[in-house]
Amino acid sequence: PSVEEAGRLAMTYDAFSCIHEGTGTWWDLFQATAWVCEKCGQHVRALTYADASLDHPRTPGSTTLPMTRVAMHQVRGRCLASLGRTADAATAFEAAAELASKHELFFLEVLALRDFKLHILDAAGHGEHASRRLGQALRQLRNPESMSQLLMGLDAAQLIALAPPGSSYRLSFDGVGET
Fold this sequence. Notes:
Elements: H1 3-11, H2 15-22, H3 29-39, H4 43-54, H5 66-82, H6 86-102, H7 106-121, H8 127-138, H9 156-161
Helix pairs in contact: 3-4, 3-5, 4-5, 5-6, 5-7, 6-7, 7-8
């Protein structure tokens, strides 16, 4: 559906909207559509729906829920990375991590930083810094060692053992980090 059609569906109280309302603490129509498009490799379309979800209050059916907004920033980051738009992807991943941290959604912060590391920072020469940031985020969880299964090949125990990232480290995308 177009963004306008999806907005109307999300705002119309019918059988679909009952499902939307019942799961509204985590789920919205734009989010679901963005995920499907991303999974199917339709990155430009996924960006359209992720952007619509984040475009509150201008787009009917968009959201202010932090969990959904974090997820949509992550979708944006992954799709932008797939399209080769590294700086834009970095901005999206930073937005996801910052919003998750602000609302103390530490699990979601870990997932955002994982995606940022794997999709952007490792290839851009910032792998060590990314690992330190991810380790710092993991330390906020109750049982961080159990996260290895969700870290796509990264070892949670190794990440946790790293020193925190330097506060003076600045990211650049010419392949070299600045300290």
